[in-house]
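agent> Task received from the user: take the single chain below, predict its 3D structure, and emit structure tokens. No templates, no multimer pairing.
agent> Plan: (1) validate residues, (2) run structure prediction, (3) serialize to tokens, (4) report one or two observations.
agent> Step 1 OK, no nonstandard residues flagged.
tool_call: predict_structure(input=
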Amino acid sequence: MDIIKERYELSHGRIQEIAKAQDVASDYRDYFRSVAEFILLVADTCDNRGKITGLEELRAENKALYADILGERYAVSYANPTYACERFGLDMGRLLSFLYAEIRAMIPYAFEQAFEDLVIRMELFVEIYNAFAYAQSEAAVPNTEDIRDTLYWYVNDYTETASARRVRNLVDTDCDFAVRIVMDSDLNDLRYLYQYGEYISQDVEQMAQYLNALPDERIQLMADTYTEGYRIGFVKAHVDLGKKQTVDIHYMLGFERVVRAAIANFERMGLKPTIYRCENTIFSKSVVRKKGYFGADANKQFLYDHKDDIALFLDKKLVNRTLEVLRLAYEEVKEKAAVYAGPAVIEVFGESPFAPVSKDEVCSLNAEQQKLSAELKGASQNIVSQYINEEERSFTIIAFPVPSIGERFVEIFDETIRLNTLDYKTYERIQATMIDTLNKAAYVEIKGMNGNKTSLRVMLYPISDPGKEAIFENCVADVNIPVGEVFTTPVLEGTNGKLHVSRVFLNELEYHNLEIDFKDGMIAGYTCTNFDSEEKNKAYIKANVLYHYDSLPMGEFAIGTNTTAYMTAKKYDIANLFPILIAEKTGPHFAVGDTCYSRSEEVRVYNEDGKEVVAKDNTVSILRKTDPSKAYFACHTDITIPYDELGSIIAYSKEGTAFPIIESGRFVLAGTEELNEPLNGQ
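)
tool_result: status=success, residues=682
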């Protein structure tokens, strides 16, 4: 630690000099001055931890740290690739914008007193500055490739450090920075929110204030629903929770009172929490699907602009290096990884919808890098699964609205709690009726209406003993809260047609007129109307739905049954704000990517009637037995057709007998009519 502090002091002193006087080409002086001043601001924040105590002072400090990417300021920020490229040209602009974005990641490290993470970025900045300062003449600038090489080796060299920290934070309860904030703070004193180093918006403060005002029994109900779903997940999977010791908790800041109650519940189950931060550095990006704890997004466009910065460096050597250090990181903590039970996630919804601006200046993966990225994603998951057995872990996800959802926030929050605690026995009974009918079917046809162009035939797994086997799983309120779906793994061969949704939000990104064509269960084509350019529309989908794979299988077909949630969305006009966790229960949905049973196919699953769910594999996932590298994709994205765009769902037996399930957005199968009661008020 003494060496790190010495490096910190040396870098700090050099950056103070850079902020005052610069020996670089005039076009670059403002860049190095402004970035140096930002680093010094972060360093002062680090050095003054605990000295700023007033709430207004803490708010001012937080705003100052994030000011450069807030609102209109972002247009003239070097963190904006468009602005940086205007100033320095495309190649150098991208590199220097990346450098500043990576330096901006220092903010939470200052609060965590993570000096090594501060130092490596400070030293990188000094090294890049020196390359400009030592150019041969006043107007000269370094070769772009030399700057890229310096940045490349930073990424290569510190991948090991970043990977070790990330894995340790996942499974080691001694990494308790956030746990201590949750458990030791006076949660009625909003100053605790400013201990994280995350951006604290008015929404975050209001969320904390609202929860603080709720009675204890209300908070306990929320926590109990959340943690009981987690416990039931282990029961249904026939996995012994008693062999596990840790649970990692994901949440948005402001929910600490619920998290504290949940931690107490988990401790009664024998589990201690790990809570890690949602990072956005070159070593770990959580832009479209957040993992860990997180504050408000100071600027979603900034995050989106830098989500593919790895394109500056990604090559086969870096892929191999990343996989090597990931394996080493897990090997170091393999005993702790073996007793990790899985994530417990609190999602939020209600923030302003985000439709990103497409920019030519941002980095994007070329064709070869897209293949490497997909390879890295899959191979990384293969390594993780060797240390964290998917068949011996579970998870749970629950969602709540945030105040920015609008003036009726309190009503919507109360309604969400009601949705999360609906009587699962009612849904279990109705869904069992639906499954009994679907067990007779060879395939299902899904048609859209009211402008929806969906026309799909989904092939179903053939069962040999309907008395003992089931094609669909009866999903009630356990790992996926709230209740309301039956789901299966489709047979890929013969699954053909078009999936169309007029408007949908997937992983926080908006899509207009999303169309996906399937041939033998694999994605064969796709488009949307977000951008004027068809090329940009396809690139948007490939990056954020296909995750750079050339194709993905249909990994899930499900029928959502939670018409109460659907009508809640209609009543408050919040359908576009629902997270997929709730949205998937409000109509049929189709997941592209892995199946719902990914990496736990051998775990026997039974519905409440005792029938075993046997449709867990498809012809891609079954490759796990012969070539695991081709079996999994480490992604699973649900796409839902709302009832008002749903013309029909009709199951057909192999003899051609039709079993209508839904017609014109209404349940017509005998025994399911009760689901129409919430819809009758439309």
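agent> Step 4: summary for the user.
The first helix runs from residue 2 to 20.
agent> Done.
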